[in-house]
Amino acid sequence: MNQPPPGFVLRKTIAGLPADILALAWSPSAWTLALGLADGSVHVFDVVKGEELLSMAGHEGPLTALAWSGPARSIASGGADRRVRIWDVEVGGERGAMRGHTQPVTSVCWSPDGRTIASADEGGTVRLWEAQARKLRWRLEGHQGAVRSVAWSPDALSIATGGADHTVRIWDADILDQKLAFEGHAGEVTGCAWSPDAAILATAGEDGVVRLWDPGTGEQQASLSGHEAGIRCLGFGSETGLLVSADRGGEVRVWNVTRLKAAGRLAGNATDGAASFSPETPLLAVKAPDRRAVGVWELDLTVLLGIDAPAPWAARKAPAAPAETGTRYDAVLCFDACDRLAVELVAQQLAERNVRVWVGDVETAPEDVLGQVHAAALFVGRLGSGPWQVSGVRRILERLAGRGVRMVPVLLPDCRQEPTVPGFASPARWIDFREQRRDPVERLILALRSGLG
Questions:
Q1: Which part of the chain has CATH 2.130.10.10?
Q2: CATH class for the domain made up of 319-450
Protein backbone atom coordinates (compact mmCIF):
# COMPACT_ATOMS: atom_id res chain seq x y z
CA MET A 1 0.00 0.00 0.00
CA ASN A 2 1.34 3.42 -0.96
CA GLN A 3 2.02 6.16 1.56
CA PRO A 4 -1.18 8.24 1.71
CA PRO A 5 -0.99 11.91 0.73
CA PRO A 6 -1.83 14.77 3.12
CA GLY A 7 -5.52 14.98 3.93
CA PHE A 8 -6.16 11.22 3.82
CA VAL A 9 -5.92 9.14 7.01
CA LEU A 10 -6.50 5.38 6.92
CA ARG A 11 -8.63 4.63 9.98
CA LYS A 12 -9.64 1.01 9.51
CA THR A 13 -9.16 -1.93 7.16
CA ILE A 14 -11.92 -4.51 7.00
CA ALA A 15 -10.54 -7.69 5.47
CA GLY A 16 -11.28 -11.38 5.10
CA LEU A 17 -14.50 -11.12 3.09
CA PRO A 18 -15.51 -14.45 1.48
CA ALA A 19 -15.73 -13.01 -2.05
CA ASP A 20 -14.77 -9.96 -4.08
CA ILE A 21 -16.44 -6.68 -3.09
CA LEU A 22 -18.60 -5.22 -5.87
CA ALA A 23 -20.71 -2.57 -4.10
CA LEU A 24 -20.37 -0.35 -1.01
CA ALA A 25 -22.92 1.87 0.75
CA TRP A 26 -22.77 3.95 3.93
CA SER A 27 -25.65 4.03 6.36
CA PRO A 28 -27.19 7.49 6.90
CA SER A 29 -26.05 7.20 10.52
CA ALA A 30 -22.46 7.42 9.20
CA TRP A 31 -20.74 4.66 11.15
CA THR A 32 -22.15 1.56 9.48
CA LEU A 33 -21.06 0.25 6.09
CA ALA A 34 -22.77 -2.31 3.86
CA LEU A 35 -20.81 -4.37 1.36
CA GLY A 36 -22.20 -6.33 -1.59
CA LEU A 37 -20.14 -9.29 -2.75
CA ALA A 38 -19.66 -11.33 -5.90
CA ASP A 39 -21.26 -14.33 -4.19
CA GLY A 40 -24.55 -12.41 -3.84
CA SER A 41 -24.31 -11.72 -0.10
CA VAL A 42 -24.64 -8.51 1.93
CA HIS A 43 -22.35 -7.82 4.89
CA VAL A 44 -22.88 -4.95 7.35
CA PHE A 45 -20.01 -3.64 9.50
CA ASP A 46 -19.47 -1.27 12.40
CA VAL A 47 -16.50 0.56 10.90
CA VAL A 48 -15.15 1.94 14.17
CA LYS A 49 -14.92 -1.46 15.84
CA GLY A 50 -14.33 -3.31 12.58
CA GLU A 51 -16.99 -5.81 13.62
CA GLU A 52 -19.44 -7.53 11.30
CA LEU A 53 -23.00 -6.85 12.45
CA LEU A 54 -24.91 -8.81 9.82
CA SER A 55 -24.34 -11.27 6.99
CA MET A 56 -27.27 -11.98 4.65
CA ALA A 57 -27.45 -14.08 1.50
CA GLY A 58 -30.08 -14.18 -1.23
CA HIS A 59 -28.91 -13.12 -4.67
CA GLU A 60 -28.13 -15.90 -7.14
CA GLY A 61 -24.99 -14.45 -8.59
CA PRO A 62 -23.04 -11.20 -8.11
CA LEU A 63 -24.61 -8.37 -6.10
CA THR A 64 -24.03 -5.24 -8.16
CA ALA A 65 -25.82 -2.36 -6.36
CA LEU A 66 -26.61 -1.29 -2.79
CA ALA A 67 -28.50 1.56 -1.13
CA TRP A 68 -29.69 2.33 2.42
CA SER A 69 -33.12 3.74 3.14
CA GLY A 70 -33.21 7.16 4.82
CA PRO A 71 -34.33 5.83 8.23
CA ALA A 72 -31.44 3.29 8.07
CA ARG A 73 -33.72 0.34 8.76
CA SER A 74 -33.51 -1.27 5.32
CA ILE A 75 -31.08 -1.92 2.49
CA ALA A 76 -32.03 -2.37 -1.15
CA SER A 77 -29.80 -4.40 -3.44
CA GLY A 78 -29.73 -5.33 -7.08
CA GLY A 79 -27.94 -8.17 -8.77
CA ALA A 80 -27.00 -10.02 -11.91
CA ASP A 81 -29.96 -12.32 -11.17
CA ARG A 82 -32.24 -9.43 -12.28
CA ARG A 83 -33.79 -9.19 -8.82
CA VAL A 84 -34.15 -6.26 -6.45
CA ARG A 85 -34.13 -7.37 -2.83
CA ILE A 86 -34.96 -5.56 0.42
CA TRP A 87 -33.07 -6.46 3.56
CA ASP A 88 -34.36 -5.76 7.07
CA VAL A 89 -31.40 -4.52 9.11
CA GLU A 90 -33.30 -4.72 12.41
CA VAL A 91 -34.21 -8.38 11.99
CA GLY A 92 -31.21 -9.37 9.91
CA GLY A 93 -32.91 -11.03 6.95
CA GLU A 94 -34.54 -10.54 3.57
CA ARG A 95 -37.96 -8.88 3.49
CA GLY A 96 -38.65 -9.85 -0.08
CA ALA A 97 -37.57 -9.72 -3.71
CA MET A 98 -39.02 -7.81 -6.66
CA ARG A 99 -39.05 -9.43 -10.07
CA GLY A 100 -39.52 -7.61 -13.33
CA HIS A 101 -36.13 -6.66 -14.69
CA THR A 102 -35.17 -8.61 -17.79
CA GLN A 103 -31.50 -7.62 -17.59
CA PRO A 104 -28.98 -7.41 -14.71
CA VAL A 105 -29.63 -4.57 -12.24
CA THR A 106 -26.97 -1.85 -12.37
CA SER A 107 -28.06 0.74 -9.78
CA VAL A 108 -30.59 1.22 -6.96
CA CYS A 109 -31.67 4.15 -4.78
CA TRP A 110 -34.45 5.04 -2.33
CA SER A 111 -36.81 7.97 -2.35
CA PRO A 112 -36.06 10.35 0.55
CA ASP A 113 -39.16 9.19 2.44
CA GLY A 114 -38.11 5.53 2.17
CA ARG A 115 -41.32 4.46 0.47
CA THR A 116 -40.08 3.86 -3.07
CA ILE A 117 -37.07 2.15 -4.62
CA ALA A 118 -35.75 3.05 -8.05
CA SER A 119 -33.72 0.40 -9.86
CA ALA A 120 -31.97 0.55 -13.24
CA ASP A 121 -30.85 -2.24 -15.54
CA GLU A 122 -28.68 -3.13 -18.51
CA GLY A 123 -31.72 -3.03 -20.78
CA GLY A 124 -32.27 0.72 -20.38
CA THR A 125 -35.25 0.66 -18.04
CA VAL A 126 -35.72 2.22 -14.61
CA ARG A 127 -38.37 0.63 -12.43
CA LEU A 128 -40.03 2.23 -9.40
CA TRP A 129 -41.17 -0.14 -6.67
CA GLU A 130 -43.42 0.38 -3.67
CA ALA A 131 -41.11 -0.81 -0.91
CA GLN A 132 -43.77 -1.85 1.60
CA ALA A 133 -45.93 -3.77 -0.86
CA ARG A 134 -42.91 -4.82 -2.97
CA LYS A 135 -44.78 -4.23 -6.20
CA LEU A 136 -44.04 -2.32 -9.39
CA ARG A 137 -45.33 1.24 -9.44
CA TRP A 138 -43.99 2.58 -12.78
CA ARG A 139 -41.36 2.25 -15.49
CA LEU A 140 -39.19 5.08 -16.80
CA GLU A 141 -38.10 4.49 -20.38
CA GLY A 142 -36.05 6.65 -22.69
CA HIS A 143 -32.41 5.61 -22.54
CA GLN A 144 -31.01 3.77 -25.53
CA GLY A 145 -28.87 1.13 -23.86
CA ALA A 146 -27.96 0.38 -20.26
CA VAL A 147 -28.78 2.80 -17.44
CA ARG A 148 -25.66 2.97 -15.29
CA SER A 149 -26.81 5.20 -12.46
CA VAL A 150 -30.02 6.38 -10.82
CA ALA A 151 -30.23 9.01 -8.05
CA TRP A 152 -33.22 10.56 -6.27
CA SER A 153 -32.89 14.26 -5.43
CA PRO A 154 -32.81 15.17 -1.69
CA ASP A 155 -35.90 17.38 -2.14
CA ALA A 156 -37.75 14.32 -3.51
CA LEU A 157 -38.83 16.21 -6.65
CA SER A 158 -36.60 14.63 -9.29
CA ILE A 159 -34.85 11.44 -10.34
CA ALA A 160 -31.61 11.60 -12.33
CA THR A 161 -30.35 8.81 -14.57
CA GLY A 162 -27.19 8.36 -16.59
CA GLY A 163 -26.75 5.87 -19.37
CA ALA A 164 -24.61 4.11 -21.92
CA ASP A 165 -26.16 6.37 -24.57
CA HIS A 166 -24.03 9.25 -23.18
CA THR A 167 -27.13 11.09 -21.92
CA VAL A 168 -28.25 12.41 -18.57
CA ARG A 169 -32.00 12.49 -17.97
CA ILE A 170 -34.03 14.13 -15.22
CA TRP A 171 -37.49 12.81 -14.44
CA ASP A 172 -40.32 14.42 -12.51
CA ALA A 173 -40.77 12.20 -9.44
CA ASP A 174 -44.43 13.16 -9.06
CA ILE A 175 -45.88 12.79 -12.56
CA LEU A 176 -43.16 10.26 -13.51
CA ASP A 177 -42.35 11.89 -16.83
CA GLN A 178 -39.08 13.04 -18.34
CA LYS A 179 -38.31 16.72 -17.75
CA LEU A 180 -34.89 17.05 -19.37
CA ALA A 181 -32.40 15.08 -21.43
CA PHE A 182 -28.95 16.44 -22.20
CA GLU A 183 -25.50 15.36 -23.36
CA GLY A 184 -21.95 16.37 -22.58
CA HIS A 185 -19.98 13.26 -21.74
CA ALA A 186 -17.88 11.66 -24.45
CA GLY A 187 -18.80 8.19 -23.30
CA GLU A 188 -21.13 6.30 -20.98
CA VAL A 189 -22.50 8.23 -18.01
CA THR A 190 -21.61 6.05 -15.04
CA GLY A 191 -22.52 8.16 -12.00
CA CYS A 192 -25.09 10.71 -10.84
CA ALA A 193 -25.02 12.56 -7.52
CA TRP A 194 -27.10 15.43 -6.12
CA SER A 195 -25.74 18.16 -3.89
CA PRO A 196 -27.38 18.19 -0.42
CA ASP A 197 -29.56 21.18 -1.41
CA ALA A 198 -30.46 19.63 -4.80
CA ALA A 199 -29.12 22.75 -6.54
CA ILE A 200 -26.38 20.87 -8.41
CA LEU A 201 -26.42 17.58 -10.27
CA ALA A 202 -22.97 16.06 -10.69
CA THR A 203 -22.35 13.33 -13.26
CA ALA A 204 -19.33 11.25 -14.15
CA GLY A 205 -18.45 9.10 -17.10
CA GLU A 206 -16.12 6.77 -18.90
CA ASP A 207 -14.48 9.91 -20.33
CA GLY A 208 -12.95 10.50 -16.88
CA VAL A 209 -14.66 13.87 -16.44
CA VAL A 210 -16.98 15.09 -13.67
CA ARG A 211 -19.58 17.55 -14.92
CA LEU A 212 -21.76 19.88 -12.85
CA TRP A 213 -25.23 20.75 -14.16
CA ASP A 214 -28.08 23.10 -13.34
CA PRO A 215 -30.87 20.53 -12.84
CA GLY A 216 -33.53 23.11 -13.64
CA THR A 217 -32.25 23.95 -17.12
CA GLY A 218 -29.83 21.15 -18.01
CA GLU A 219 -27.06 23.68 -18.60
CA GLN A 220 -23.53 22.61 -17.76
CA GLN A 221 -22.01 24.81 -15.07
CA ALA A 222 -18.51 23.35 -14.91
CA SER A 223 -16.35 20.34 -15.72
CA LEU A 224 -13.65 18.80 -13.51
CA SER A 225 -10.89 16.89 -15.27
CA GLY A 226 -7.97 14.86 -13.97
CA HIS A 227 -8.94 11.19 -13.98
CA GLU A 228 -7.03 9.03 -16.44
CA ALA A 229 -9.59 6.21 -16.41
CA GLY A 230 -13.36 5.93 -16.51
CA ILE A 231 -15.09 7.05 -13.31
CA ARG A 232 -17.23 4.49 -11.53
CA CYS A 233 -18.36 6.16 -8.28
CA LEU A 234 -19.39 9.70 -7.38
CA GLY A 235 -20.68 11.26 -4.16
CA PHE A 236 -21.26 14.57 -2.38
CA GLY A 237 -20.47 15.26 1.25
CA SER A 238 -22.94 16.86 3.63
CA GLU A 239 -22.78 20.66 3.42
CA THR A 240 -19.00 20.73 3.00
CA GLY A 241 -18.68 21.63 -0.68
CA LEU A 242 -16.92 18.30 -1.10
CA LEU A 243 -17.34 15.93 -4.04
CA VAL A 244 -15.49 12.62 -4.35
CA SER A 245 -14.97 10.55 -7.50
CA ALA A 246 -13.26 7.17 -7.97
CA ASP A 247 -12.13 5.64 -11.25
CA ARG A 248 -11.54 2.14 -12.56
CA GLY A 249 -7.78 2.62 -12.30
CA GLY A 250 -8.01 2.89 -8.53
CA GLU A 251 -7.58 6.65 -8.26
CA VAL A 252 -9.78 8.69 -5.91
CA ARG A 253 -10.08 12.46 -6.34
CA VAL A 254 -11.56 15.00 -3.96
CA TRP A 255 -13.03 18.18 -5.46
CA ASN A 256 -13.77 21.53 -3.90
CA VAL A 257 -17.07 22.29 -5.62
CA THR A 258 -17.19 25.84 -4.28
CA ARG A 259 -13.88 26.76 -5.89
CA LEU A 260 -14.19 24.28 -8.78
CA LYS A 261 -10.77 22.76 -8.27
CA ALA A 262 -9.09 19.56 -7.13
CA ALA A 263 -8.56 19.35 -3.36
CA GLY A 264 -6.80 16.00 -3.04
CA ARG A 265 -5.87 12.74 -4.72
CA LEU A 266 -5.49 9.18 -3.40
CA ALA A 267 -3.80 6.63 -5.67
CA GLY A 268 -2.45 3.12 -5.20
CA ASN A 269 -4.69 2.32 -2.23
CA ALA A 270 -7.86 1.36 -4.09
CA THR A 271 -8.97 -0.73 -7.03
CA ASP A 272 -11.50 -0.57 -9.90
CA GLY A 273 -13.40 2.44 -8.57
CA ALA A 274 -15.56 0.63 -6.02
CA ALA A 275 -16.03 3.30 -3.37
CA SER A 276 -18.61 5.09 -1.24
CA PHE A 277 -18.48 8.52 0.39
CA SER A 278 -20.42 8.96 3.62
CA PRO A 279 -23.23 11.51 3.29
CA GLU A 280 -22.86 12.64 6.90
CA THR A 281 -19.17 12.57 7.84
CA PRO A 282 -15.96 12.92 5.79
CA LEU A 283 -15.40 9.17 5.65
CA LEU A 284 -14.52 7.35 2.44
CA ALA A 285 -14.71 3.59 1.97
CA VAL A 286 -12.73 2.15 -0.95
CA LYS A 287 -12.19 -1.37 -2.15
CA ALA A 288 -8.60 -2.34 -1.36
CA PRO A 289 -6.21 -3.79 -3.96
CA ASP A 290 -6.75 -7.38 -2.78
CA ARG A 291 -10.46 -7.01 -3.72
CA ARG A 292 -11.75 -8.75 -0.58
CA ALA A 293 -10.96 -5.91 1.80
CA VAL A 294 -12.07 -2.32 2.21
CA GLY A 295 -10.17 0.64 3.58
CA VAL A 296 -11.98 3.29 5.61
CA TRP A 297 -10.36 6.71 5.17
CA GLU A 298 -11.05 9.91 7.04
CA LEU A 299 -10.70 13.07 4.99
CA ASP A 300 -9.05 15.94 6.84
CA LEU A 301 -11.13 18.91 5.72
CA THR A 302 -8.72 21.35 7.30
CA VAL A 303 -6.04 20.14 4.89
CA LEU A 304 -8.24 19.49 1.85
CA LEU A 305 -10.61 22.46 1.99
CA GLY A 306 -8.82 24.87 4.31
CA ILE A 307 -11.74 24.99 6.74
CA ASP A 308 -11.81 24.51 10.49
CA ALA A 309 -13.59 21.19 10.86
CA PRO A 310 -13.78 18.63 13.68
CA ALA A 311 -12.30 15.15 13.30
CA PRO A 312 -15.31 12.86 13.71
CA TRP A 313 -13.29 9.65 14.00
CA ALA A 314 -11.29 10.95 16.95
CA ALA A 315 -14.48 12.08 18.66
CA ARG A 316 -16.13 8.72 18.03
CA LYS A 317 -13.12 6.76 19.24
CA ALA A 318 -12.34 8.94 22.26
CA PRO A 319 -12.68 7.04 25.54
CA ALA A 320 -15.34 8.15 27.93
CA ALA A 321 -14.20 10.99 30.16
CA PRO A 322 -13.79 9.98 33.79
CA ALA A 323 -16.56 10.98 36.09
CA GLU A 324 -15.67 13.98 38.22
CA THR A 325 -15.02 13.00 41.80
CA GLY A 326 -17.99 13.77 43.99
CA THR A 327 -20.17 14.81 41.04
CA ARG A 328 -23.77 13.75 41.00
CA TYR A 329 -25.04 13.25 37.46
CA ASP A 330 -28.74 13.86 36.96
CA ALA A 331 -29.11 11.99 33.66
CA VAL A 332 -27.43 10.39 30.67
CA LEU A 333 -28.18 11.49 27.12
CA CYS A 334 -28.62 8.71 24.55
CA PHE A 335 -28.45 9.56 20.85
CA ASP A 336 -27.37 8.48 17.39
CA ALA A 337 -23.93 9.65 16.20
CA CYS A 338 -25.35 11.91 13.49
CA ASP A 339 -27.33 13.87 16.13
CA ARG A 340 -24.31 14.59 18.35
CA LEU A 341 -24.05 18.33 17.62
CA ALA A 342 -27.75 18.93 18.28
CA VAL A 343 -27.61 16.95 21.52
CA GLU A 344 -24.48 18.76 22.71
CA LEU A 345 -26.32 22.06 22.23
CA VAL A 346 -29.14 20.80 24.45
CA ALA A 347 -26.57 19.57 27.00
CA GLN A 348 -25.04 23.05 27.10
CA GLN A 349 -28.45 24.59 27.82
CA LEU A 350 -29.04 22.02 30.56
CA ALA A 351 -25.69 22.81 32.13
CA GLU A 352 -26.54 26.52 32.15
CA ARG A 353 -29.57 25.59 34.28
CA ASN A 354 -27.51 23.46 36.67
CA VAL A 355 -28.53 20.07 35.33
CA ARG A 356 -25.57 17.66 35.24
CA VAL A 357 -25.74 15.25 32.31
CA TRP A 358 -23.41 12.64 30.87
CA VAL A 359 -22.80 13.19 27.12
CA GLY A 360 -20.76 10.62 25.25
CA ASP A 361 -20.75 7.06 24.03
CA VAL A 362 -23.28 5.47 26.35
CA GLU A 363 -21.78 2.03 25.76
CA THR A 364 -18.49 3.15 27.34
CA ALA A 365 -19.92 5.32 30.12
CA PRO A 366 -18.22 4.59 33.46
CA GLU A 367 -20.15 2.30 35.76
CA ASP A 368 -20.14 4.93 38.52
CA VAL A 369 -22.03 7.25 36.17
CA LEU A 370 -24.64 4.70 35.14
CA GLY A 371 -25.01 3.59 38.72
CA GLN A 372 -26.02 7.01 40.05
CA VAL A 373 -28.27 8.55 37.36
CA HIS A 374 -32.01 8.44 37.80
CA ALA A 375 -33.06 9.52 34.30
CA ALA A 376 -32.08 9.02 30.67
CA ALA A 377 -33.10 11.15 27.71
CA LEU A 378 -33.56 9.28 24.41
CA PHE A 379 -32.97 11.74 21.57
CA VAL A 380 -34.52 11.06 18.18
CA GLY A 381 -33.38 13.10 15.18
CA ARG A 382 -34.03 13.05 11.47
CA LEU A 383 -33.12 9.37 11.03
CA GLY A 384 -35.77 8.20 13.47
CA SER A 385 -35.27 5.33 15.89
CA GLY A 386 -33.99 2.71 13.46
CA PRO A 387 -30.31 2.73 14.50
CA TRP A 388 -31.25 1.80 18.08
CA GLN A 389 -32.42 -1.58 16.83
CA VAL A 390 -28.96 -2.52 15.51
CA SER A 391 -26.65 -0.93 18.06
CA GLY A 392 -25.54 -1.41 21.62
CA VAL A 393 -27.53 1.67 22.66
CA ARG A 394 -30.66 -0.41 23.00
CA ARG A 395 -28.91 -2.86 25.31
CA ILE A 396 -27.59 -0.04 27.48
CA LEU A 397 -31.01 1.57 27.74
CA GLU A 398 -32.60 -1.73 28.71
CA ARG A 399 -29.96 -2.10 31.42
CA LEU A 400 -30.79 1.37 32.71
CA ALA A 401 -34.52 0.65 32.60
CA GLY A 402 -33.90 -2.47 34.68
CA ARG A 403 -32.46 -0.25 37.40
CA GLY A 404 -35.58 1.87 37.54
CA VAL A 405 -34.09 4.74 35.56
CA ARG A 406 -36.77 7.04 34.12
CA MET A 407 -36.81 7.14 30.30
CA VAL A 408 -37.62 10.47 28.62
CA PRO A 409 -37.96 10.37 24.81
CA VAL A 410 -36.99 13.65 23.10
CA LEU A 411 -37.73 14.73 19.53
CA LEU A 412 -35.04 16.98 18.05
CA PRO A 413 -36.03 19.85 15.73
CA ASP A 414 -35.13 17.90 12.56
CA CYS A 415 -37.11 14.78 13.48
CA ARG A 416 -39.40 14.30 10.50
CA GLN A 417 -42.13 12.27 12.12
CA GLU A 418 -42.92 10.64 15.45
CA PRO A 419 -40.93 7.41 15.37
CA THR A 420 -41.43 4.04 16.96
CA VAL A 421 -39.12 3.83 19.95
CA PRO A 422 -38.06 0.79 21.98
CA GLY A 423 -40.94 -0.59 24.01
CA PHE A 424 -39.46 0.24 27.38
CA ALA A 425 -39.64 3.95 26.51
CA SER A 426 -43.23 4.05 25.27
CA PRO A 427 -44.95 5.02 28.56
CA ALA A 428 -43.04 8.31 28.78
CA ARG A 429 -44.26 11.54 27.21
CA TRP A 430 -42.40 13.08 24.31
CA ILE A 431 -40.41 16.28 24.83
CA ASP A 432 -40.78 17.87 21.40
CA PHE A 433 -38.12 20.43 20.42
CA ARG A 434 -40.07 21.08 17.21
CA GLU A 435 -42.70 22.82 19.34
CA GLN A 436 -41.45 26.14 20.75
CA ARG A 437 -44.60 27.52 22.37
CA ARG A 438 -43.47 26.00 25.64
CA ASP A 439 -39.77 26.02 26.45
CA PRO A 440 -38.68 22.46 25.56
CA VAL A 441 -35.52 22.71 27.66
CA GLU A 442 -37.55 23.56 30.75
CA ARG A 443 -39.96 20.73 30.01
CA LEU A 444 -37.02 18.36 29.63
CA ILE A 445 -35.59 19.45 32.98
CA LEU A 446 -38.95 18.82 34.67
CA ALA A 447 -39.18 15.39 33.07
CA LEU A 448 -35.65 14.42 34.04
CA ARG A 449 -36.05 15.58 37.62
CA SER A 450 -39.63 14.72 38.43
CA GLY A 451 -41.15 12.79 35.53
CA LEU A 452 -43.46 15.65 34.60
CA GLY A 453 -43.65 16.51 30.84
A1: 8-312
A2: alpha beta
Please state the rounded mean pLDDT for residues 57-68: 95
Cα–Cα distance measured from residue 330 to residue 332, given in angstroms and rounded to the nearest whole number: 7
CATH 3.40.50.10140 domain span(s) along the chain: 319-450
CA dist 36 and 22 (Å) reads 6
Domain 8-312: which topology?
Answer: Methylamine Dehydrogenase; Chain H (2.130.10)
Least confident range from 150-159, 257-266, 306-315: namely 306-315
CA dist 59 to 22, 32, 81, 97, 114, Å? 13, 21, 7, 9, 22
Per residue in 89-124, pLDDT (tens digit) is 877 889 999 999 999 999 999 999 999 999 999 999
Pairing of strands 357-359, 331-334: parallel
What pLDDT is recorded for position 181?
A: 97
Q: What is the mean pLDDT of residues 212-235?
A: 96
- Report the pLDDT value the prediction gives residue 430, as an integer from 0 to 100: 81
- Per residue in 129-177, pLDDT tens? 999 999 999 999 999 999 999 999 999 999 999 999 999 999 999 999 9
223: amino acid identity, one letter: S
